[in-house]
Every structure is written in structure tokens, then in C-alpha cells.
């Protein structure tokens, strides 16, 4: 059935499923059909089942593992539950799109990465930044030599977490079992961006801070980065910033020009090509979720490769943990090189 929709089981019906994955899946009815829904909370399971047009749901994912009518799972759970449910799903031959990060500890993430290497089913990790149109356009410009050799990258991300609503009101995010809280949860995306454009990271030197009284983990981080190719970078993220506007800003400086990316916009400048900068806008910008699901479908149905492998996403997580180690120990931390 090379072109048939994948029959999808959804394990976890929280905010990410409802507000990020569901809008993307609704755009791809020729590729995905949701046939089963599961959540530990029956109220959440029932609500999402109704959204997906189903009249039944489960509260124990183990009842779905052997279901013949399911080809693949979306696993979108609290970080500490992602790895065991993903592993159990792969073990029975189901393909999995698993939310990031891979696990609540780097050791558990490594174990899942190693298991996935021996697994026949596809495991695509939901680091959607790998699938953003703006980032991939920038990569094309760089590969075409449009800004010369990269020597400096800066990446800034600010937001203000509200503990009374949305992601900030989630108990497991306020008092996280995973190290680093929001810094590591969202930070794996940022590590991916640094590695996408700078290559492998050789060393980091970081400082981290907990500011919000209700968040029991680091919620601010600033780091200097040295890439294996000799380029340098700076990264900081704040989840307690008071500012009129929040968002991200990536700047990539090359020997002949530069690229700047903000949310939904890209600016490219090379004075040898034009005295004015070229600006691109992305009016239907969805942070890469539709492309991510397309990549999952193509991997399962057509055997195509994709960027957000368990190997890559383990390394993203290792970068953030190295930054947290650097901040805790007040030293420069070297990362292992392949």
C-alpha cells in the first residue's frame, strides 16, 4: 500500500497534540487517518477523540499496541513517559513519531537511540525546526556559497512563561522530572539550529539561572559555543523575559554576507550581489509541523531519509545537557566528537 494513508494511533492528547500536531494532520488527509486515541485522562481522551471524529478512546496505551488496524503512533506525552512508550511501540513493529526530547535523562535517551538503531520500524523525533521552510531556505543559500564561510552564529529566544495557562500551567513542566525544565525541553530545538548551521559543537561555556518562583528548574541560559570547524557562536534563551515582543532571532555571519531569520521571515545580504538585502516572508508559517508529518509519511511509505533521527536528536539533547553541566560546574565542557 505505497500511497495509502497511514492509520495513526495517538498516544497523549495534551497541548502539543491538540495545538501543534492536529492542525498539521488535518492538512494531510490523504496521508494520515486517525483510527485510535489514548490518554490517561478519560476527559482529555474523549475530547480529542471527538475532535478526530471518533466515538471511542482508550486510557491505557498497551491496549493499542497489538491492534492490526494501527500502522503508526504519535507519542506525545510528558517527557519522562516518551521513551518507554516509544520503545514498546517500536518493539511490536509500529512506526513512531515521538515528541522531543527523547527521554528525561541523557542516559535514557541514549538507550532509546541505541534501541532504535536495531529497530525496523521508523522512529522520527518531533524536532520540527529541522523541517522549517525558512531554515531550509537558509541552508540552501549557504550550500550555494551565497554568504561564504560561516564564522559566527548568534541565536536568541525569549518568552515569558505564564504559570496560570497553557504550557506554563502544566504541573510536570513547573516541577520537572527532566533536568533543565524549559531550558532543555525547548532548548533541544535551539541546539538543533546551532548544529544545522554551524556543524558539530566542540565545546560550550554557559551560565544558567532560575528566576520564576513557580518554576523549579533553570529558566534562563546564556552560552558561548565553539564549533568543530572553528566557527564560534552565542546562544541565550529566557523564559521569564519581560518584553513588548517575544520570539527568536538567528543571525549567521559569513565571510561574504549574512542571513537573519526571525519568526516567519528571512533576510539575506551579500554586498557583492546587491546593495540591498533580500527579504522573504512565510505567510503560512507553521514551524515545520506539516513538513515533519510529510517526512514521516515518506519515510514509512517510501523509505526516504529524514533529518530528525534519534541519533541527531540525542546529540541535540547532549548539547543542552553539556551547557547545564558547564553552568553548574562553572567550567568549559568539551563534547565528544565522532
Describe this structure in words.
The protein is of the alpha/beta class. The chain folds into two domains: 6-129 and 289-309, 3-Layer(aba) Sandwich (Rossmann fold); 130-284 and 317-334, Dihydrodipicolinate Reductase, domain 2 (2-Layer Sandwich), CATH 3.30.360. It contains ten helices and 14 strands. It has helices at 15-26, 42-51, 79-91, 106-117, 133-143, 171-174, 182-185, 187-198, 289-302, 310-329, and strands spanning 6-11, 32-38, 72-75, 95-98, 123-125, 150-158, 201-209, 220-227, 232-238, 247-254, 258-262, 265-269, 278-281, 333-334. The strands form two sheets. Strands 13-12-11-10-6-9-8-7-14 form a nine-stranded mixed sheet. Strand 4 (95-98), helix 4 (106-117) and strand 5 (123-125) form a beta-alpha-beta unit. Helix 4 runs antiparallel to helix 10 (310-329). The chain starts with 5 loop residues before the first strand and ends with a strand.
Key words describing this protein structure:
Dihydrodipicolinate Reductase, domain 2, 2 domains, 338 residues, Rossmann fold, 10 helices, nine-stranded mixed sheet, globular
**Class from secondary-structure proportions:** alpha/beta
Report, as a whole number of angstroms, the end-to-end distance.
38 Å
CATH fold label of the largest domain: Dihydrodipicolinate Reductase, domain 2
CATH architecture of the largest domain: 2-Layer Sandwich
What top-tier CATH class of the largest domain fits best? Alpha Beta
- Coarse morphology: globular
- Element order, helices and strands? EHEHEHEHEHEHHHEEEEEEEHHE
How many strand segments? 14
Helical segment tally?
Answer: 10
Compute the gyration radius: what is it? 20 Å
How many domain modules? 2
- Report the mean per-residue pLDDT as an integer: 96
What composes the largest sheet? 9 strands, mixed
Q: What fraction of residues sit in β-strands? A: 15-25%
Looking at CATH, the homologous superfamily of the largest domain is Dihydrodipicolinate Reductase, domain 2
In spatial order, strands of the major sheet run 13-12-11-10-6-9-8-7-14
Helix content: 25-40%
**Low-pLDDT regions:** none
Amino acid at each position: 500500500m505505497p500511497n495509502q494513508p497511514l492509520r495513526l494511533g495517538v498516544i497523549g492528547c495534551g497541548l502539543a497534540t491538540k495545538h501543534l500536531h492536529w492542525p498539521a494532520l488535518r492538512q494531510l488527509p490523504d496521508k494520515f487517518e486517525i483510527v485510535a486515541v489514548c490518554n490517561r485522562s478519560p476527559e482529555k481522551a474523549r475530547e480529542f477523540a471527538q475532535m478526530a471524529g471518533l466515538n471511542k478512546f482508550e486510557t491505557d496505551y498497551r491496549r493499542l499496541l497489538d491492534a492490526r488496524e494501527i500502522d503508526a503512533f504519535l507519542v506525545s506525552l510528558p517527557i519522562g513517559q516518551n521513551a518507554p512508550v516509544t520503545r514498546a511501540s517500536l518493539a511490536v513493529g509500529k512506526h513512531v513519531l515521538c515528541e522531543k526530547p527523547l527521554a528525561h535523562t541523557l542516559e535514557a535517551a541514549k538507550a532509546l537511540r541505541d534501541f532504535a538503531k536495531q529497530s525496523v520500524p521508523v522512529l522520527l523525533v518531533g524536532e520540527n525546526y529541522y523541517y522549517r521552510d525558512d531554515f531550509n531556505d537558509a541552508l540552501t543559500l549557504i550550500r550555494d556559497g551565497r554568504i561564504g564561510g560561516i564564522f559566527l552564529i548568534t541565536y536568541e529566544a525569549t518568552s515569558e512563561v505564564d504559570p496560570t495557562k497553557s504550557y506554563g500551567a502544566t504541573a510536570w513542566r513547573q516541577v520537572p522530572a527532566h533536568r533543565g525544565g524549559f531550558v532543555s525541553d525547548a532548548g533541544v530545538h535551539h541546539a538543533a539550529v546551532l548544529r544545522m548551521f554551524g556543524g558539530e559543537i566542540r565545546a560550550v561555556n554557559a551560565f544558567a539561572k532560575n528566576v520564576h518562583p513557580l518554576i523549579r528548574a533553570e529558566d534562563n541560559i546564556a552560552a558561548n559555543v565553539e564549533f568543530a570547524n572553528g566557527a564560534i557562536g552565542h546562544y541565550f534563551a529566557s523564559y521569564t523575559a519581560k518584553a513588548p515582543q517575544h520570539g527568536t532571532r538567528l543571525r549567521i555571519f559569513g565571510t561574504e554576507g549574512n542571513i537573519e531569520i526571525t519568526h516567519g521571515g528571512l533576510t539575506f545580504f551579500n554586498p557583492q550581489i546587491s546593495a540591498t538585502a533580500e527579504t522573504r516572508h512565510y505567510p503560512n508559517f507553521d514551524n515545520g509541523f506539516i513538513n515533519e508529518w510529510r517526512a514521516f509519511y515518506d519515510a514509512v511509505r517510501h523509505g526516504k531519509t529524514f533529518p530528525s533521527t534519534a541519533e541527531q536528536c540525542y546529540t541535540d539533547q547532549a548539547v543542552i545537557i553539556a551547557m547545564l553541566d558547564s553552568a553548574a560546574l562553572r567550567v568549559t565542557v568539551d563534547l565528544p566528537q565522532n
